[in-house]
Amino acid sequence: MRTEFILNGEKACADVSPNENLLTTLRKLKCLSVKDGCLEGSCGACTVWLDQKPVLSCLIQTVRIAGHEVMTLEGVQDDALVLGRYLLDEASEQCGYCIPGLMMTVLALKKQNPHPTDAEIDEWINGNLCRCSGYQSRRRAIRKYFEEMS
User: Fold this and answer.
1) Which of 11, 15, 85, 113 lies 20 to 30 angstroms, CA to CA, from 66?
2) 2-74 CATH fold
3) To 10 degrees, the CA torsion angle through 51, 87, 82, 74?
4) Interval 111-149: pLDDT, tens
């Protein structure tokens, strides 16, 4: 089944099976920032934007996104590089596997609310699990990012 959509600002076409999830399709289209962490929507590693809103790509069938806009970390690299420096400065990652999904979530929050409270940050990043580095350093990095970017 052929599905057409906008991917990182460009027209994209993919031949997909009816049950194929967006995560699988994006990986086939060389969007390697999108990670397969759990395939059940509980880790956040596969977070992308669908029509400017963060979604878990493992839970969405590709055929349902026809005509919609999908943004991956590859499409927001400049913003991601800035945020990444804050995460690195706070030593908030070890393996880095979960970082692309976290970044997509934080950048979406910035678009919606450039001055979030700590509680709002915690609420937004709650679904982005990390198995190796913990969360306090992430919170510090994200707080500093918002403070200095506003």
Assistant:
1) 113
2) Ubiquitin-like (UB roll) (3.10.20)
3) -40
4) 999 999 999 999 999 999 988 877 899 999 999 999 999
